[in-house]
Amino acid sequence: MAFLSQRGMNNVVIFSMLLMIALFNLDTFLPSAKAPAVVPLIPQDAYVLKIEQGQSQLVRNGQGWRQVSPDPEIVTTPAQQISAWRLATLLPVEMSAEPHTEPLVAVVWLAGQSDGLVFAFYPQQDKTLVKTENAWYRLSDATLTGLLPWDQ
Q: Is 69 within a domain?
């Protein structure tokens, strides 16, 4: 059986402490993960109560949905509209200045949250820009007509 002197035992303790410090801080030594490239428009597991935009609304009605709008001729069904909101994704973009157009502001009310999710949609020629939580995104996997059919 090997015996260590006091000096040898101190060295073992010092090296084991250094090893533990390195293991606990391993995540700081590794490269950090990139920000997600694609962000869902609304959280996947969110329980949506209502979507408002101006005087128009998409309201949960029991297990289904109903559209409340001054425009009586909405082509998109409520099921198609909520499906478009759930499938839509956002791609981060760099913006140097805000667009000069007036945004279409929509508020999504979720169960368990006192504040709604606010989205400012800026329709462009070939894309739709979205500003939410002070970040700019490009709308993907959905059209503005599918999300807000009463405004078209």
A: yes
